[in-house]
């Protein structure tokens, strides 16, 4: 559904400091919220990561986990109808 690229939301949100599960959560959040302005933000942040190094973004991890939890609850409720 989404082609791989040179950078991504999980790469600018911690990359090597993240577990595979955390990267998956961030990538699923990205797929649901992707847009051209968001892609431009990721490109800009990639330059920052290249210049200043990786930084684990706990705020983004929490946002993605909360969104995923809500999505699962919604899917469960829709499936039980």
Overall 3D geometry? globular
Q: Rg from C-alpha positions?
A: 14 Å
Low-confidence stretches: none
- Class from secondary-structure proportions: mainly alpha
Pfam families: Bac_transf (PF02397)
GO molecular function: phosphotransferase activity, for other substituted phosphate groups
Organism: Aliiruegeria lutimaris
InterPro entries: Bact_transf
SSE layout and pairing:
Layout (H helix, E strand, L loop, with lengths): L19 H14 L2 H17 L5 H22 L2
InterPro entries: Bact_transf
GO molecular function, one term: phosphotransferase activity, for other substituted phosphate groups
Family: Belongs to the bacterial sugar transferase family.
Keywords:
81 residues; Sugar transferase; mainly alpha; 3 helices; phosphotransferase activity, for other substituted phosphate groups; Bact_transf
Structure notes:
- Helix 1 packs across helix 3 (58-79).
- 65% of the residues lie in helices and 0% in strands.
- It is mostly helical and 81 residues long.
- The protein has helices spanning 20-33, 36-52, 58-79.
- The protein contains three helices and no strands.
- The protein has one domain.
- The longest helix is centred in the C-terminal third of the chain and has 22 residues, at 58-79.
- GO terms for molecular function: phosphotransferase activity, for other substituted phosphate groups.
- It comes from Aliiruegeria lutimaris.
- This is Sugar transferase.
- Belongs to the bacterial sugar transferase family.
- InterPro entries: Bact_transf (IPR003362).
